[in-house]
Structure prediction request, 604 residues.
Amino acid sequence: MKSGKQSSQPEKGSSRILSLTILFIAFCGFSFYLGGIFCSERHKIEVKDVTRTTTTKAVASPKEPTVSPIQVKSVSFPECGSEFQDYTPCTDPKRWKKYGTHRLSFLERHCPAVYEKSECLIPPPDGYKPPIRWPKSREQCWYRNVPYDWINKQKSNQHWLQKEGDKFHFPGGGTMFPRGVSHYVDLMQDLIPGMKDGTVRTAIDTGCGVASWGGDLLDRGILSLSLAPRDNHEAQVQFALERGIPAILGIISTQRLPFPSNAFDMAHCSRCLIPWTEFGGIYLLEIHRIVRPGGFWILSGPPVNYNRRWRGWNTTMEDQKSDYNKLQTLLTSMCFKKYAQKDDIAVWQKLSDKSCYDKIAKNMEAYPPKCDDSIEPDSAWYTPLRPCVVGPTSKVKNSGLGSIPKWPERLNVAPERIGDVHGGSASGLKHDDGKWKNRVKHYKKILPGLGTDKIRNVMDMNTVYGGFAAALIEDPVWVMNVVSSYSANSLPVVFDRGLIGTYHDWCEAFSTYPRTYDLLHLDSLFTLESHRCEMKYVLLEMDRILRPSGYVIFRESSYFMDAITTLAKGMRWSCRREETEYAVKSEKILVCQKKLWFSSNQAS
Prediction:
């Protein structure tokens, strides 16, 4: 370099580096190629292997994997003491002292905690007999089945009932209908022509006595639900159900009744002693909520006809006149209008005109005010009474009386409110009705007593649209349609079809007396509710409300059948399994019958 000559070493070095680089790239490329081939072939082998394994399995066992049925240990439930014979867990008189007396709230539902629940079988009264069959039961029942003399002694001059030998007879008398309930209802029909032509179909009777009003309406095509609280002496609801007349325990106090808004076509109070004008008329507001637009509220007794009747009411004419004026003012403020009156019967009609409710909404000083949109009108399970007027919405514009079809057409017409149920539609209702017609036809084959006078009081424990009840509409039964308080709100659809029902949570006891239903039906109840409600307690509650010799139809997943059968045996039920109408393997039918037994401490 010093001599100024260029060296040849860099050229040779560069050439060598370039050659190595090309060789390295070529080697990497070849390796990548080989790796691709190897991976591709490996993938092919695995796929072939999986395919072969799957094919082999399919040939060996074409059935889908199954889950083993749930199993429970055998159990034999003990007998309850004789003091439990009329036990109503959520309205137990022994617990009343724990709760306040304000507005008689102690008579509302107060259910025992899980650790307080009884795990025993309730015995019938000594001398109990299978109930007299319908329709004779409307006129008489066995005294030993409902051994209460209080009404007979206190109301003997009003002919509510009369004890003759070993029976109670129901002559159809009442405080406000001394000439008999049929004459009383005839007068009512003269005031409300819609009671004659199918316009009025559903009714509620608050403070029902022995339910003679509801019993008479059945022959006139009107289905009435009698409502009264649990009491120590009168046993009003127990008498009603023993007669085969729809009834449920309940009271208008601090909570809403377990019915949706705009449910009943008519509400009735015959001297029911509810203080309608007290507490700002909050009891009337609840009547307003559950009566559909265009529906009626009927009041007979104080303060109606005060100018002639006041002497018999242990009060003054001035006081009765004042009460009547208060009542009329409150009803007007709630968008009721006076419809008709004759003698002791007064009728108001709930307005369906939106303008009345708009006036309330615009008047900031109006009382009662219009409910705001945050208050759900159908929320009715342990929901406090609201001191406001539930106004009509666009959802119920065609659900008012006069807008819905007359009975019996309305049974088969899809109500507007079916659109509020998730997935609900007119075609869905039609399909559901067809399904239940097939099912009930099959039920009558495996339970021949269904559809005869052997079965009168029926409960569908988890209905959707009332399809089971609709399929039985020509039979001598009535059906209590129960919609779970945790399921989709389909109860408005049930009422719009001209059927009756209630909200309920089967983790708790039902609002009725023991031995009040001939048939309980449940469709996949445990599939839907077993994650919340313990099966044992649901079955014990079913045993409580089921009459001796009564039946249960379980339509349930095969997964639960063994457990149900085991527990039913522990309750002294006899059961047999049946196939469904289409012999579906995943679903079975279990028909059980409760045996008539007497306490070991009683004479049988």
The mean pLDDT is 87. DSSP finds 15 helices and 17 strands in the chain. Residues 63 and 200 are 54 Å apart (CA to CA).
